[in-house]
Amino acid sequence: MKSLGNYRALLAKVDEMTAGISTAHAAHITCHRGCDSCCRHLSLSLVEGVALAEALSSLPEDKACFLREKAKAATADGPCPLLDNGECALYVHRPIICRTHGLPILVSEGDGQRIDFCPLNFRNVQTLPGDAVVALERLNTILAAVNKFFVTEYHAAGTSGKDRLSIAEALLLEV
Fold first, then answer.
1. Tens-place pLDDT, residues 142-162
2. Which end of the chain is less congested by CB atoms within 10 angstroms, N or C?
3. Is the pTM of the predicted complex or chain greater than 0.85?
4. Where are the domains of the chain?
5. At a CB cut-off of 8 Å and minimum separation 6, what does 43 contact?
């Protein structure tokens, strides 16, 4: 879908950044296939939701139906409906938050900032170099701009002007 071009370009940049962090700090990152306790049912920007819906539509029909049924049964505070036997069924197409999860992220809180990451990662590490940290606010600002541009070009049936969707709502979109 042409209107997803900016989002896909952003994903490529995010993947480049996260691959660099993961490679440089592999000894301190324990995330692996089947490590899914952080995979929760999250909300997404519309552009991310439509990208997931498009990816779902490219799956074999039986797999897509299975995931749509999981989406219908998903709860707001439950596990991600994309989890299938501890793995993401749309891993290659996962949203940005999933691509950065577990890595050190710079979070703004009130007047200060802190670095957050999975407690299983970076154990016994006293300091982190700046290139190991994802600037979450900057990334979210770029994603918001990409989403705003996307919304001006495209409006999915069933979104009713929403700017955020749950993963389950995204999986039920018709694209």
1. 999 999 999 887 765 555 567
2. N
3. yes
4. 2-171
5. 164, 165, 166, 167
